Backbone:
């Protein structure tokens, strides 16, 4: 199981790097071709935007796992440890609500758009909304895993504070499952 | 009621530690329920389409350029040029910091990235030369805050997309206010140095040959802002294309000319960029869902009614809005603040006859200043961590520069032509 999870996140990282590289090649290639040969890559705009959506949502799976999404900690850090724990538990449950709705909406849109083709490349637009399904399922699993470990009392106290831009820049993010023996909710840097 | 629900959900969820992107999505859910529009497909469509934007693609490209710049030795060479030019003056290292801050601002577009680079390079150098550490760190923090104003700027891109304002015009309008910030910091530093008791060592004056060598070494790094600004000014490329040109150019210089970056390092750089991109973009996508619902609920209309007394006095309205932004930005990071406030404020300023480009530059300048105000002040935290200075000491060190930056903001509110005349000239 652990190996499968690690392989999944490894694959996500590879897709992210390839997608970003492809975006650079397509957009820069288009600029170059336009000025050197007065030509362009027909699929560049559509494909680069698709890659961008991939980077955004598949990258977000990774960063949610690493708890790198920015929050405000000025209230939470003033609370007692018990208060912090309550807030953390409530926050985890609340985060699942919009993601569950996103999953439902993406699933419905994916089915509606299966036969709709994109204007230039002609790929199924169901694939576009499928990114939302992959994202939602992955994030729900991560959040559920974190919540389960939190309820089981296997969560490091330091992990209860949200990330801020400063902590992200300094690399002092505390993954929620560090030292908890779990992989799903654990930062890639710690294990992978 | 709608405004109360919007603010209550947003601030309440953020207060208990829900990440801002999720707080925005919860806010969207609450608004959908309140407006009787409860449909999961609204969230799915808006959030995915929010990320499907060619204009926003500039964000990962500028982030990539910044990563390559720091890893590939471009930042280091910029500092060397500044040292060669002004290092010998009394308090010269301070002017070096400001100069490097301005040039790095024209390369990366991220205050936090600039703060990390400048703090690592300049604070040890300044303390060794006998400068007071908190003041040195304070200057580094303030100089880093020029980055979101001078193009290319991620803040201006996000504002442009959220407010439907031309990013190219915003970029060109940001040049003069950014340089004014630099001059204001130089004036504040001159004042600090003049009244300082510290025994400062000045750098030895370097000869013309050394200066030329530093300029020749840093020439390739200095060409980047020139390429971007000239390209945008001449309409050679869009901001997104300018961003990708910046990334590829930085890569070429770092790998082929400076040879400080190996091809094998690229995987890690691209992965870090993708991570940073997803954090910013997920936040933007979530905010665009809220922005759509905010317009459906006619929240801007309600705000226009609230500020009706100010409508005939644009300067007064701008002052009031700037105070509101200062208050909000002290407890919220820059990008979320832009995303939450822009959809609400843009209709207000248009109604009052204020130019959205002018407003955008002042908005971002204001947000930049808040990066060095406690409690959130992300640049403050980065510099404190990097220079091993306590936040309390750093706040004392930063206040003269904070004051100088607020003076620039106040000047620009009183005299809009300081922004618009150069902006119109650049855009001609």
Residues:
């Amino acid at each position: 199981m652990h190996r499968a999870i690690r392989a999944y996140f490894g694959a996500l990282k590879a897709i992210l790097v390839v997608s970003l590289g492809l975006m650079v090649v397509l957009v820069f290639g288009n600029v170059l071709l336009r000025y050197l040969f007065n030509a362009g890559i027909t699929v560049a705009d559509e494909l680069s935007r698709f890659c961008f959506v991939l980077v955004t949502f598949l990258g977000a799976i990774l960063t949610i796992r690493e708890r790198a999404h920015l929050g405000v900690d000025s209230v939470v850090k003033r609370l007692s440890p018990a208060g912090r724990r309550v807030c953390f538990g409530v926050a985890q449950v609340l985060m699942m609500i919009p993601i569950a709705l996103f999953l439902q909406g993406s699933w419905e849109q994916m089915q509606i758009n299966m036969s709709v083709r994109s204007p230039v490349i002609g790929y199924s637009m169901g694939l576009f909304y499928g990114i939302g399904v992959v994202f939602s399922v992955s994030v729900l699993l991560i959040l559920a895993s974190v919540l389960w470990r939190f309820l089981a009392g296997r969560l490091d106290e330091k992990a209860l504070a949200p990330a801020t831009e400063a902590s992200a820049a300094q690399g002092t993010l505390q993954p929620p499952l560090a030292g908890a023996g779990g992989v799903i909710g654990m930062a890639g840097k710690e294990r992978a | 009621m709608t405004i109360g629900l919007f603010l209550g959900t947003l601030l309440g969820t953020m207060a208990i530690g829900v990440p801002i992107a999720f707080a925005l999505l919860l806010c969207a859910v609450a608004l959908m329920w309140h407006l009787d529009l409860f449909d999961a497909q609204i969230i799915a469509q808006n959030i995915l389409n929010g990320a499907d934007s060619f204009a926003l693609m500039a964000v990962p490209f500028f982030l990539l350029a910044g990563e390559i710049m720091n890893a590939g030795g471009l930042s280091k060479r910029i500092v060397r040029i500044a040292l060669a030019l002004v290092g010998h003056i009394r308090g010269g290292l301070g002017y070096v910091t400001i100069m490097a801050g301005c040039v790095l601002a024209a390369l990366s577009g991220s205050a936090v990235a600039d703060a990390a680079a400048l703090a690592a390079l300049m604070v040890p150098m300044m303390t060794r030369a006998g400068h007071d550490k908190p003041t040195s760190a304070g200057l580094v923090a303030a100089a880093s805050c020029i980055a979101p104003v001078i193009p290319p700027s991620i803040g201006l891109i996000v504002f442009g997309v959220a407010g439907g304002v031309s990013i190219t015009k915003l970029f060109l309008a940001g040049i003069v206010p950014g340089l004014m910030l630099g001059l204001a910091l130089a004036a504040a530093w001159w004042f600090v140095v003049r009244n300082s008791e510290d025994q400062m060592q000045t750098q030895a004056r370097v000869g013309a040959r050394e200066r030329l060598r530093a300029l020749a070494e840093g020439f390739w790094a200095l060409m980047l802002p020139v390429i971007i600004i000239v390209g945008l000014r001449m309409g050679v490329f869009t901001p997104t294309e300018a961003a990708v040109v910046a990334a590829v150019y930085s890569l070429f210089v770092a790998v082929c000319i400076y040879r400080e970056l190996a091809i094998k390092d690229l995987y890690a750089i691209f992965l870090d960029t993708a991570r940073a991109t997803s954090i910013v973009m997920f936040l933007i996508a979530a905010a665009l869902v809220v922005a759509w619902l905010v317009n459906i609920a006619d929240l801007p209309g309600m705000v226009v009614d609230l500020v009706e007394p100010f409508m005939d006095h644009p300067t007064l309205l701008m002052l009031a809005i700037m105070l509101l932004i200062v208050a909000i930005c002290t407890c919220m990071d820059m990008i979320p603040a832009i995303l939450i406030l822009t959809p609400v404020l843009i209709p207000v300023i248009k109604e009052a006859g204020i130019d959205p480009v002018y407003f955008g530059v002042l908005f971002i300048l204001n947000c930049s200043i808040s990066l060095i105000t406690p409690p959130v002040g992300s640049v403050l935290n980065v510099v404190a961590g990097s220079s091993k200075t306590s936040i309390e000491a750093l706040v004392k060190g930063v206040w003269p520069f904070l004051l100088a930056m607020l003076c620039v903001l106040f000047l620009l509110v009183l005299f809009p032509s300081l922004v618009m005349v150069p902006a119109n000239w650049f855009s001609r």
